[in-house]
Amino acid sequence: MDYKAAGAPKLGKKAPKHQEHNAHGSNKKPFGQRASKEDLLARMKKAAEAKKAE
Fold first, then answer.
1. Are 29 and 23 spatial neighbours (Cβ–Cβ below 8 Å)?
2. Is the separation of the CB atoms in 48 and 42 below 8 Å?
3. For residue 50, with 0-12 CB atoms within 10 Å meaning exposed, 13-18 middle and 19 or more buried, which class applies?
4. pTM for this entry
5. Burial of 11 from C-beta contacts in 10 A (0-12 / 13-18 / 19+)
6. Are residues 22 and 29 in contact, defined by beta-carbon separation less than 8 angstroms?
């Protein structure tokens, strides 16, 4: 007997479980608002300097 084929098919495996409240493209964070890599690196360097100063 083929036990794998028994029962109802399971659907929707690819769908996310929930929506993030600040996902890109939502009202709180519309598309095009993602920071550039240069901005990210500058922010990371500033944070590293602040941590080093402590």
1. yes
2. no
3. exposed
4. 0.40
5. exposed
6. yes
- CB-CB contact of 28 with 21 (8 Å): yes
Q: What would the pLDDT profile of 42-53 be if each residue is shown by its tens digit?
A: 999 999 999 998
DSSP 3-state of 12: coil
Q: What is the DSSP letter of 1?
A: -
Nearest C-alpha neighbor of 22 from the set 10, 33, 11, 13: 33
Token pair 């598309």 is found at 31
The residue type found at 39 is: D
Q: What is the mean pLDDT of residues 9-24?
A: 75
Structure tokens given for 34: 């993602």
